[in-house]
């Protein structure tokens, strides 16, 4: 297999950084991007090309960065939309600015980078789009509604893009991690909303404490997660001999929670079938 060229967003830490390390280890080429170039200097020393890319920039700035990226190796084979963060807080206490910031990075950033890469993929009639979704794209846990909503939005967009572009030879992979040990819950990355409304105080405070306890103690191993994702993109390892996959849920917590939701959804659908199907002309 000829080496693939990957472009990853949000490579300063966590899954992004691990993607870069394992891609290089498999002999592929990678353009590691981050909003602060100095945060990915060490990846350059490891053999990655680096580029500044803040996914909240204007589309023109992002398009320019993607053109520059294409010029580095003469093309891009795989785009990984990885950049993201969590805004914590009860819906009633979230400001418009917080909601916008969450969607600006997790959803609109993902859309803008994907839109910038798609013409290149269509022209080549090839390419792989990888979206780092989440268990939170399936389940709206309390006090992380902004994050869940942004990841639900990514799920919907990824499903549509898959249907729109698979005829052009473009593959879409939606990775859905449960809780994995990265810096996602580290204060500073995680934006916490101190509860002011007394009704929410107790539950929201204990949720914040829970997140702090879970920071760097999550059950999921990012090294294993990235290895599986690389296998599925490169059709090797654990993916070998399996039919193509669109949704890739990862983590035991993800398996259990998604299964429960699917079962409840089917139960609800069947329980209401007579009513659901009674509203047609
Ligand atoms: N870890 C988990 O349990 C888990 C579960 C489900 C989904 N995910 C998803 O996995 C992805 C990676 O997160 P992680 O777990 O690796 O957490 P992380 O260690 O906090 O990494 C997040 C990365 O996103 C970058 N980023 C944030 N805003 C950005 C922007 N505007 N432009 C470019 N980069 C930006 C951060 O860069 P800076 O250093 O500049 O802030 C950082 O490199 C996220 O989309 C997250 O939602 C993670």
Give an overview in words:
- This protein has 281 residues and is α/β, with parallel strands linked by helices.
- It has a single domain, classed as NAD(P)-binding Rossmann-like Domain (Rossmann fold, 3-Layer(aba) Sandwich), CATH 3.40.50.720.
- It is 49% helix and 13% strand.
- It is built from nine helices and seven strands, in the order E-H-E-H-E-H-E-H-E-H-E-H-H-E-H-H.
- The protein has helices at residues 14-25, 41-46, 59-73, 96-124, 145-165, 198-214, 222-234, 252-271, 273-276, and strands at 5-8, 29-34, 49-52, 78-81, 127-132, 170-177, 247-250.
- Strands 3-2-1-4-5-6-7 form a seven-stranded parallel sheet, with helices on both faces.
- Helix 5 (145-165) links the parallel strand 5 and strand 6 (170-177).
- Helix 3 runs parallel beside helix 4.
- It starts with a strand and ends in a 5-residue tail after the last helix.
- The model has no long low-confidence stretch (mean pLDDT 97).
- The structure holds NADP nicotinamide-adenine-dinucleotide phosphate (NAP).
- NADP nicotinamide-adenine-dinucleotide phosphate (NAP) is lined by residues 9-16, 34-36, 39, 54-56, 82-85, 105, 109, 132, 134, 177, 179-180, 182-184, 189, 218.
